[in-house]
């Protein structure tokens, strides 16, 4: 059967099911009583229930929360209003202009319509999630389509789709990145650099490699522009006087195989690569920022691994399914030397001390489910707004703030072995104002570690 016919049949089946779902949702929306429509600021019952649950958690004593903890010591469902804790800095007041008054009216109108927009968005998300996760036969249809792609050698990327994936050399999947204008991003980084200097803090920007190697012929600067984007950003930052570090250069200077530093089915690098990156950053901190970190401990011989065989299917593997991807091993690394840490993650009510194992969320590895579980989130409990780490065996008094995303989850634990205090902020989760936070929390060094 032609490939197009297969997709036509699958699309028709999904369309019929979605049409039935939309009829039901439409009936729900039409059934809203008139008095509820008149109350523009009334939360939906579901939102109200979430608010009540969050408020109840906030009012619980430590003993009451302890009864809710999972085996990792985590309490789920805690909501923190970071924007209230660290509000945006107010600028000098000015006389309202006609445009400003129009903006105020629009803001008032948005406040009235916001509850309905939120409800519609919630319904849209429900339909999307249900259609992708729970629709009868959906996963089987996706696997069948990908198996058919493999048979006919179909490897064309739709750049408008989410997380577009292609097969690179050595049977590694890569996620293609579109060409991007980096001027706005460069301006943000330069502004932070200037702020840090003005407030007695040092600042370092670190570019991490992506899963696409510069030498991937037919992919780089053809359908993937990550390296081109990163090069432009690095040049702009250096021209502006920002201290930068490019781990792509370090990776090749050390003679490492680029693809072998990454999971085959995921865009993240291996934990071993994260440990290597921590060693490179530590050396830079020693050379340029007055740190005294023992960089020998980042060598592979100082670490052992617990291996979970065939336990991991990464984000790329999930997209192309098991019909094209093969599960791979996942490792948790442990130092062969003595360690002692204290870690706090406010949004998980996590506050505990212990050896290097305090950095691991073991629940992410207790169930083998290739499509639902994410073993990578075992490192540093996944992406969190704020994480605070105190190395109880280091006494240099140094304080470091790491700004990053999921790539730093398997860098920070290793880097923490040589720094007394290291905090982490994921700005995708942190809703407060970064500059207000820095006013309240002084650091010796702010490191930005990003795969742009």
Write a short abstract of this structure.
The chain has 452 residues and is α/β, with parallel strands linked by helices. It has 14 helices and 12 strands.
Account of the protein in words:
With 452 residues, the protein is α/β, with parallel strands linked by helices. The protein folds into two domains: 32-133, no CATH class; 176-450, no CATH class. Helix content is 40%, strand content 15%. It has 14 helices and twelve strands. The protein has helices at residues 3-30, 34-38, 45-59, 62-66, 82-85, 98-133, 138-152, 183-198, 226-239, 247-253, 271-289, 315-320, 412-415, 434-440, and strands spanning 165-167, 173-175, 202-207, 244-246, 303-312, 328-335, 341-345, 350-354, 386-391, 399-404, 421-425, 445-450. The strands form three sheets. Strands 4-3-12-10-11-9-7-8 form an eight-stranded mixed beta sheet, with helices on both faces. A two-stranded antiparallel sheet has the order 1-2. Helix 1 (3-30) packs antiparallel against helix 7.
């Amino acid at each position: 059967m032609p490939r197009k016919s297969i997709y036509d049949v699958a699309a028709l089946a999904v369309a019929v099911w979605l049409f039935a779902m939309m009829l039901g949702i439409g009936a729900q929306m039409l059934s809203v009583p008139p008095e509820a429509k008149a109350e523009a600021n009334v939360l939906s019952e579901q939102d109200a229930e979430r608010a009540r649950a969050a408020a109840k958690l906030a009012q619980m004593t430590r003993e009451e929360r302890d009864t809710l903890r999972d085996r990792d010591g985590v309490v789920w469902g805690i909501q923190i209003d970071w924007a209230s804790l660290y509000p945006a800095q107010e600028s000098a007041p000015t006389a309202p202009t006609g445009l400003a008054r129009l903006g105020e009216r629009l803001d008032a109108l948005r406040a009235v319509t916001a509850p309905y927009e939120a409800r519609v968005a919630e319904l849209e998300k429900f339909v999307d999630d249900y259609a992708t996760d729970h629709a009868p036969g959906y996963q089987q249809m996706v696997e069948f389509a990908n198996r058919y792609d493999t048979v006919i050698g179909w490897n064309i990327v739709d750049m408008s789709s989410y997380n577009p994936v292609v097969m690179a050399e050595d049977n590694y999947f890569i996620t293609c990145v579109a060409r991007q204008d980096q001027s706005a991003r460069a301006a943000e980084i330069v502004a932070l650099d200037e702020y840090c200097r003005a407030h007695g803090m040092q600042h370092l920007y670190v570019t991490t490699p992506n899963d696409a190697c510069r030498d991937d012929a037919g992919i780089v600067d053809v359908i993937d522009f990550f390296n081109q984007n990163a090069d432009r950003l690095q040049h702009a930052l250096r021209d502006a006087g920002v201290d930068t570090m490019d781990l792509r250069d370090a990776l090749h200077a050390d003679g490492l195989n680029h693809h072998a530093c990454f999971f085959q089915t995921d865009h993240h690098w291996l934990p071993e690569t994260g440990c290597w990156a921590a060693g490179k950053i530590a050396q830079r901190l020693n050379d340029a920022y007055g740190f005294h970190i023992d960089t020998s401990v980042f060598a592979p011989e100082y670490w052992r691994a617990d291996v979970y065989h065939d336990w991991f299917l990464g984000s790329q593997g999930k997209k192309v399914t098991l019909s094209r991807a093969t599960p791979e091993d996942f490792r948790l690394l442990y130092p062969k030397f003595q360690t002692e840490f204290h870690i706090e993650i406010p949004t998980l009510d996590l506050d505990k001390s212990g050896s290097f194992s305090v950095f691991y969320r073991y629940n992410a590895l207790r169930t083998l489910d290739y499509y639902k579980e994410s073993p990578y989130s075992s490192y540093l409990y996944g992406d969190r707004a704020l994480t605070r780490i105190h190395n109880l065996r280091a006494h240099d008094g140094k304080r470091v703030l790491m700004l990053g995303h999921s790539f730093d989850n398997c860098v920070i634990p290793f880097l923490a072995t040589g720094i007394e205090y290291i905090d982490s902020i994921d700005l995708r989760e942190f809703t407060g104002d970064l500059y207000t936070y820095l006013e309240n929390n002084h650091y010796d060094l702010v490191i930005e570690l990003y795969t742009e």
